[in-house]
Amino acid sequence: MGTPTPRHPGLDTLYQRYLNHEDSAAFIAAVARGYTIGTLERLAEFGQRTSRRAATMALGLLGDYRSNDVMGRRLSDEDRGVRMLAENSIRELWYRDGNEAQRQALQVAIRLNNAEQSALATRVTSELIDEALFFAEAWNQRAIVYFQRGRYDDSANDCFQTLELNPYQFASAVGMGQCYLEMNEPQPALDCFRRALKLNPGLEDVRAQVTYLERALEGR
Description:
Helix 7 (100-114) runs antiparallel to helix 8 (118-131) and helix 12 (186-199) packs antiparallel against helix 13. By secondary structure, the chain is mainly α. The protein folds into 2 domains: 9-94, Leucine-rich Repeat Variant, CATH 1.25.10; 100-218, Alpha Horseshoe (Serine Threonine Protein Phosphatase 5, Tetratricopeptide repeat), CATH 1.25.40. It contains 13 helices and no strands.
């Protein structure tokens, strides 16, 4: 048997202090002074439970898209607290790809999608994709606007491209499944929902959808 990975008492203490006082600014400042992103990534993967929780939260606040793989694996962590922190944090990493101008354009697209301003959202996301083909979240946001406009095939294609660029984008796997449901293609929808669950086992609504589709397809 290997030696258990020790806790990191300094980070654990900062995390407990945050839980007691809910002062996120103080937590960020203290962690930034004492830890590199690489150290936080190692603790998120290999630390004991409290250290994994603390490091996962810190990466969500301080990291960028380069920490996506580490955070994505935490979605399946054995500890529920780590899984919840990872799900809350990973989206922030997805938004932190590209340069500052591209990130700002993405935020504009998100606001337009939330306001259901589909024409403008389509234009902004398409322009961002043309400029930054690698930016997975730009593809995901265009998939959302296409879905809102009833362009389900186009939306599914953009979800596929999102997952090619970011294999941990569970929301895009769910979105692609919804597209296939709208196109009355239950088997591909089921495959997408299963993929989403594999990425993020905490998606209970998706788990229920998988169960429903499995029963429906068995009855055919």
